[in-house]
Design goal:
single chain, 83 residues, alpha+beta, YefM-like fold, 2 domains, 4 helices, 3 strands, elongated
Length: 83
């Protein structure tokens, strides 16, 4: 994860927003030498959230993962996502 100073982010927000979009990686904003805030592209955030939700759903199934193909397709496509 890239760490940048608040002042540098403020002066170059468009540049850093583009970097987040291109890499799908978050930026760590540093204030007075301490990490203070994480900034990330909204699309990358949504993708990461879907991945986390899918992982949680899979972990909550039987230990042998007795999922039928249709159920797995629904989990991956996000059709049964809670909003």
């Amino acid at each position: 994860m890239i760490a940048i100073k608040y002042d540098d982010f403020g002066a170059n927000a468009e540049l850093f927003a583009r970097l987040c979009e291109m890499t799908s990686e978050p930026l760590r904003l540093v204030k007075e030498g301490c990490p203070d805030l994480i900034v990330m592209d909204a699309e990358a955030f949504d993708k990461r959230q879907r991945s986390i939700e899918l992982r949680e759903q899979l972990l909550n199934t039987d230990s042998e993962l007795n999922l039928d193909t249709q159920k797995l397709k629904e989990l991956v496509s996000g059709k049964n996502r809670k909003r």
